[in-house]
Amino acid sequence: MMKKSLLSVLVAGLFAVPALAFEPFVVKDIRVEGIQRTEAGTVFSYLPVKVGDTLDDEKAAQSIKALFATGFFKDVRVEVDRDVMVIVVQERPAIAKVDFVGMKEFEKDVIVKALKETGIAEGRIFDRALLEKAEQELKRQYLTRGKYGVNITTTVTPLERNRVGVNFNVEEGAAAKIKQINIVGAKAYKEKELLSQLELTTPGWLTWYTKNDQYSRQKLSADLEKLKSFYMNQGYLEFAVESTQVSISSDKQDVYITVNVTEGERYQVSSVKLAGDFTISEPELRKLVQVKAGDVFSRERLNDSTKAISERLGKEGYAFANVNAAPEIDKEKRKVAFTIFVDPGKRVYVRRINVTGNTKTRDEVIRRELRQMEGGWYDADRVAASKLRLDKVGYFTEVAVETPAVPGTADQLDVNLKVTEKPTGNLMLGVGTSSTDKVILSGSIAQNNFMGSGNNVAIQVNSAKSYRTYSFSYTNPYFTTDGISQGFDVYHRTVNTSSTTLAYYTSASTGGGIRFGFPIGEKESLSFGAGLDSTDITTYDDSPQYYKDFVNQYGNKNLTIPISANWVSDGKDSYFFPTRGTFQKAGIEVAIPGGDLTYYRASYQLQQYFPLNSKFTLMLNGEVGYADGYSGDGLPFYKNFYAGGVTSVRGYKASSLGPITNSDGTDYRIGGNRRVIANAELLWGIPGMEKSFRMGWFFDAGQVYGQGEKMDLGELRYSTGLSAAWISPVGPLKFSYGMPLNKQDTDKTESFQFQLGTTF
Predict the structure, then answer these.
(1) Do residues 560 and 690 both lie within one domain?
(2) How far apart are alpha carbons 121 and 457 in whole angstroms?
(3) FRET label pair with 314: which of 391, 426, 507, 745, CA 20 to 30 Å apart?
(4) Rounded to 5 degrees, what are φ and ψ at 601?
(5) Are 412 and 339 found together in one domain?
């Protein structure tokens, strides 16, 4: 059977008008030849010719154009075999795999996603032009990290079934470092002071972590804005950055940055006026204006003023208020007057609150935390408080809030809450360790959001040698619709101090209790509890006489009826790793008459977080405790306070500070009825792990005082060192390396301390 070739068309000739090469005929069949991966049906779907159509040279050319336009083929021919239209194609190869060799700077997934946007990805049709574009994109990614000497070699390997493998061989080289930054044109301030405003810097002792000695166009743009803000806040209204020059050394290792600025004159504020429709009294709005006549102009204070007015209007439901400051500049006198125009717009109410993303948590569990109500006037503070409360329940990794206007209305908006749930259950069976107990065989089942109800159920088994616990607890945070919580606990605990720094005794306690919590404010709550505890004490020949005397006087088995009251004020912005806010807690436990012992223990804690910048947070913490017996009873020695260890004064052994008793020439710690703890810690996160890992540099102080001892602050013990906290897949981990600063001969120290698999 003979074939007659009609057209063989190259890409460059697609738009030429072909000469008539045959008599038109009716197509009785269409056959495709040369395909390996592409289905024949795919080819038919792109053809403008169907069986039964009349084929001529124009429709043949259209067919070739259509198939070339798909990008699947690098050559297309149309042939005729009698009344059969034959499509002969040569496919472009497909990309079977994309590999990287020598790439350490980036995660593979990040680069694969970036290259996919250029057209290079597994399953895509291979195009060498797109490959060159992908190389440039990969180089661009490295340039953003300061790797100007990167060398990328691409290899394309043919594979079976007309496929190819694409391999990027990367020689990353060292990142170029900023050698010098010059600011030209500055007269009012020294260059050193101006450079301190910038994030980019020359290499220093912390730049290995911050990477701020590596040039980035985005960082430079942000720094220029910071420089402008610095001048504008000091009154230089006409400050401008004239130009910037960035040059790289010939070996591509050093970067030089030059910034040319014009300072202009310094301006004072001559007057500040309010104009427009206030809706709120003008005197009240004036209190929010931070810029006063006679002040040196500050853009920051002016922006804070307009923002404060907008937020104040937002509290009254004016969600779309427009507040702008218009300047009137007097260049001769170097004065500037401002008129703040206030346009509150219409008062807005919330039409609907929409919650999405909660596949497990019940809708009511989320809505009961909201402070903004449907149908009520919009209140920006209430919306912010709602988000914060949802962040702190611990059920979600992220809570996003949007307040879009309702289309077609001027006085309505919706509040859209999108939550991302996280696993709230924890099943742990395994081995934990701590520097105190060495090996802890433990298991626990806990569910903070049981069946999506928001209730907490926990079963814990802890078999540490010195401290064993078997407990069950249940908490319903909304026992009533008003937010009163209710819970109960049952437990059995044993203590064996033989492997600790404490004087030797053993105890076994069995008990339980019920508790109720009452919200008394947005961030404050009161809780009350009552329980029953039976404790069995065993002393030994080498136990301190203090312990033996207590057992002789009160017996080795005591039943107590403890009642407790606690006040908590939690203003932190996060439960696990806060960066700002204040936390306070005051509590008292009293063993009331009716039991064998009567005593009380009171404590107070104040904790404050200060954000120093976007990376560092300063934490200050103070704790005091006091305990004693009453009604003629003494304080049980096992209710004493202790200090030392990873949770109080690091660098000293756990529970090692305070009063000492000597038995057979050995010093033992017995605790005391008063405790003082103070901590200061500079905290910072690890990039990419801010929600699970944080480090710190700490300074600790603390001491425990026994009954009858003078509370001498000169006896405080001090330490400093580094710490880290990690919410790891196997449980919480906390460790520190501490160095005692005023160790005494009787002190027991321990530089490296840690906890794994136990609560901290």
Answers:
(1) yes
(2) 47
(3) 391
(4) -135, 125
(5) no
Largest CA distance in the chain: 123
The secondary structure of 184-229 as a DSSP string is ES--SS-HHHHHTT-S--S--SSHHHH-TTS--HHHHHHHHHHHHH
The phi, psi pair for 65, rounded to 5°, reads -60, -45
Instruction: Give CA–CA dist 684/666, Å, rounded.
Output: 42
Q: What DSSP letter does each residue of 7-37 carry, written as one string? A: EEE-GGGTTS-PPP-S--EE--EEEEES-SS
Contact by Cβ (8 Å): 752, 453: no
R_g (Cα) of the chain, nearest Å: 37
**DSSP letters for 608-644:** EEEE-SSSEEEEEEEEEEEEEE-TTPPPPGGG-B---
Q: Which of 388, 464, 379 is nearest to 758 (CA)?
A: 464
Distance of alpha carbon 302 from alpha carbon 312, whole angstroms: 15
Into how many domains does the chain fold?
6
- Give Cα 748 to chain centroid, integer Å: 37
Residue that the structure tokens 């010195």 belong to:
466
Q: At what angle do helices 380-392 and 299-315 cross, to 10 degrees?
A: 90
Helix ranges, 428-533 (H): none
In the 8-state DSSP scheme, what is residue 364?
H
Coil, helix or strand at residue 67: helix
**What residues does 629 pair with on adjacent strands?**
599
369: tokens are 């935390």
CA atoms within 13 A on the CB side of 541: 1
Query: Mean pLDDT over residues 438-443, rounded?
Result: 47
CA distances (Å), 436 to each of 465, 495, 516, 749, in order? 10, 13, 34, 12
Global model pTM greater than 0.70: no
Four-CA torsion 370, 375, 379, 385, nearest 10 degrees: 0
Strand partners, 322: 343
Within 410-505, strands assigned E span 412-421, 425-434, 438-447, 456-463, 467-476, 485-496
Write the CA distances from 203 to 81, 210, 213, 500, integer angstroms. 74, 10, 5, 46
| CA distances to 124, 447, 468 from 456, in Å | 49, 6, 22
Residue 19 Cα distances to 6, 23, 658, 674, angstroms: 10, 12, 106, 106
DSSP category for residue 652: B
Pull the structure tokens for residue 452.
């999506």
Give the integer Cα–Cα distance in Å for 438 and 435.
6
Query: What are the helix (H) ranges across 654-699?
Result: none
487 pLDDT tier (thresholds 50, 70, 90): very high
Altogether, the residues listed in the chain come to a count of 760
Closest-CA residue to 415 (of 359, 375, 452): 375
Q: Which of 396, 421, 446 is the last residue of a domain?
A: 421
701-717 pLDDT, tens digit each: 999 999 888 899 899 99
Amino acid at 623: E
- Tokens standing for 602? 């009171």
Range of the domain at 325: 268-343
* Residues 628, 480 share a domain: yes
Q: Domain holding 273: CATH number?
A: 3.10.20.310
Q: For the segment 134-183, what is each residue's pLDDT rounded down to a tens digit?
A: 888 888 888 877 788 889 999 999 888 788 899 999 988 888 889 999 99
Instruction: Provide the 10 A C-beta neighbour count for residue 440.
Output: 22
